[in-house]
Design goal:
Blueprint (H helix, E strand, L loop, with lengths): L19 H18 L3 E2 L5 E3 H5 L4 H5 L2 E4 L6 E4 L4 H12 L5 E8 L15 E8 L4 H17 L6 E6 H11 L3 H12 L3 H8 L7 H8 L3 E2 L1 H11 L4 H20 L4 E5 L12 E6 L8 E5 L3 H4 L6 E7 H7 L9 E4 L5 H10 L5 E3 L14 E8 L2 E6 L2
Helix pairs in contact: 1-5, 6-9, 7-8, 8-9, 10-11
Protein name: ATP phosphoribosyltransferase regulatory subunit
Pathway: Amino-acid biosynthesis; L-histidine biosynthesis; L-histidine from 5-phospho-alpha-D-ribose 1-diphosphate: step 1/9
Family: Belongs to the class-II aminoacyl-tRNA synthetase family. HisZ subfamily.
Length: 393
């Protein structure tokens, strides 16, 4: 290894430097403050856990994104968290064990074995909220509303919200009773929205069968008209499908009423989180950015794997991505420059200012340095025997 190689970081891993680090931390605080004002309590899960805990109820997708290592104390396999949602579920079900409604929020780095796509790194800063103990649509609406509020705080313009329901695909694929390989191929084609592949896989299904309905449904997406088309395709299929479509209709009506500025639609190929979501799922997008900026949904099954069945819903987002996409008004970051002077009175002035201000104290090596390069827009100067703050220049 050469000297220059020692400074290299792995692909998808990078330092976050000033001033970006300050903007990220500012938004993280604002997002967490917003969640706490809605009654969500902050938790800080550990960076690593035993694999059994991290993967409980989450399926294979998360396992592929998780770095694994051996615990030198016990010999058991551990993982570096790739998603904090299962950790919040464990905390609710096992660590806290509270009755009634529990609201938790969190923010911290997660680590992925590979980027989600070409424009992302492997160390997102995940923030999110989870609501446990309520199976009501009111809980789903609260979580969606809070997610939209955090995006407003982040300064994101023109949000589009996609709604879907896991039970629709789950019911149809179960009724069709395909072999495992065919089911995997259908799932993969649905996730990629590849209609030609679905036509090839499902083209021989009889009209009115679950497979034929699934093939038709893959072509349906858009606004309220898409829900009406889905109702036509699934008419008479099953009570569970009717219930899922009815819920999508009620939630979309509430969103139209409460958030008229938000565009929303339906995506019946949305299978993200299919392995552990159990009901309504949602994802927020901004124009010109292909990946979702926030996502979530209902996942009532995870808690039972921790020994305590609890209905649950929540959302998560990447703080780093929001900073890159948002249009937040930057907070004034100016600081006060204090000279390298040994006057005892200066020490008292600096201490007082630091109660509310950022003060950068010059050192002997700073002679000749322009204070603006240190983020300062004011300076302490001595006038008539008193130290006062004045604008630089």
């Amino acid at each position: 290894m050469t000297v220059s190689d020692r400074w290299l970081l792995p692909d998808g891993v990078e330092d976050i430097l000033p001033p970006l680090a300050g903007r990220i931390e500012s938004l993280r605080r604002d997002v967490m403050d917003t969640c706490q004002r809605w009654g969500y309590q902050l938790v800080i899960p550990p960076l690593i856990e035993y694999l059994e805990s991290l993967f409980t109820g989450t399926g294979n997708d998360l396992e592929l994104q998780t770095f694994k290592l051996t615990d030198q104390l016990t010999g058991r396999m551990m993982g570096v968290r790739a998603d904090m949602t299962p950790q919040a579920a464990r905390i609710d079900a096992h660590t806290l064990g509270q009755e009634g409604i529990t609201r938790l929020c969190y923010a911290g780095h997660v680590l992925h074995t590979r980027p989600r796509h070409m424009l992302t790194g492997r160390t997102p800063i995940q923030a999110g909220c989870e609501l446990f103990g309520s199976a009501s649509e009111s809980a789903d609406m609260e979580v969606i509303s809070l997610m939209l509020e955090t995006l407003r705080v982040a300064g994101l313009p023109r949000i589009h919200l996609d709604l879907a329901h896991v039970a629709i695909y789950e019911s149809l694929i179960g009724e069709a009773d395909f072999d495992r390989d065919t089911e995997r191929a259908i799932f993969d084609a649905m996730a990629r929205k590849s209609v030609p592949e679905l036509d090839e896989l499902l083209g021989q299904c009889a009209a009115g069968s679950a497979g034929a309905r699934l093939r038709e449904l893959a072509r349906v997406s858009g606004g309220p008209e898409a829900l009406n088309e889905a109702r036509r395709i699934l008419q008479g299929a099953s009570d569970s499908l009717d219930a899922a479509l009815d819920q999508l209709g009620r939630v979309s009506d509430m969103l139209s009423r409460d958030y008229p500025e938000i565009s929303f639609g339906f995506d019946f190929c949305e299978l993200r989180g299919y392995n552990y979501h159990t009901g309504l799922v949602f994802a927020a997008y901004v124009p010109g950015h292909g990946d979702s900026v926030a996502k979530g949904g209902r996942y009532d099954a995870i808690g039972s794997d921790f020994g305590r069945a609890r209905p649950a819903t929540g959302f998560s987002l990447d703080i780093r991505a929001l900073v890159a996409l948002g249009e937040r008004v930057a907070r004034k970051a100016g600081a006060v420059w204090a000279p390298a002077d040994d006057d005892p009175a200066l020490e008292g002035v600096i201490s007082g200012l630091r109660m509310t201000e950022t003060v950068v104290r010059a050192l002997p090596e700073d002679e000749g340095v322009n204070p603006t390069t240190k983020g300062c827009d004011r300076e302490l100067v001595k006038q008539n025997g008193q130290w006062v703050v004045q604008k630089l220049g």
